[in-house]
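Retro notes - structure team

What went well: the batch runner handled both jobs without manual restarts.
What didn't: labels got mixed up in the shared folder, which is why I'm recording both outputs here explicitly, each with its sequence directly above its tokens.

Job 1
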Amino acid sequence: MLILLLGIIFLHVAALVLLFVSTIVSEWTTGEVGTSDLWKNCTLDNIGHICNAASTGEWIQVVQAVMILSIIFSFLSLILFFCQLFTLQKGGRFFLTGAFQILAGLFVMSGAIIYTVMSPGWVPEKDTFGYSYILAWVAFPLAVISGLIYIILRKRE
């Protein structure tokens, strides 16, 4: 049982770390002359790197908001898991923890989908998606799977 709990916690923390990295690091799209992400656009000029704040369009603000919400819900889910681990009665299920983690997964999926659909009008066509974007997509199934595991999991003594 202890190994199972450690595995679940490891899966949850891995998803949370991926959410943090994908939200913070500036590699959502990369190209020959620069990178762009949720917060800033950087280009390489003959002077050096020039970074400007991200567009103030509504869609990028929505992506910023849902990515932050995914981190908050995943973190709250981890705290709820530890609280329920010590307060839940024997045989009880971790429904609230699982629901929060599944919501975190749905938020990151929504942010990645919005970025996928809306970025072609904002990012040059020859740019490609970067590793932060890919990490966001990897965090989505990890968060949903860990949420489903929490819902299925029963507390034992």
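Job 2
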Amino acid sequence: MKLLVLSLAVLLLMSHLTPGVAQRCWNLLGKCRHRCSRKESVYVYCTNGKMCCVKPKYQPKPKPSWLF
């Protein structure tokens, strides 16, 4: 029983200390971060105030100005 409690405590601690887990955004194609990498750009902002970093190939393409 003590082993079970100890293993649950370790798993709980490891889940909080795991680095690199970021909140997902933009239909799960982007990640909420303070700073985007070189290959990413900001399109929207996350609910937590961080930038939603999305690769340009997943961002919508702008419509030409001559189309209505």
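One thing worth noting from job 2: The first strand starts at residue 24 and ends at 25.
We'll revisit the folder naming next retro.
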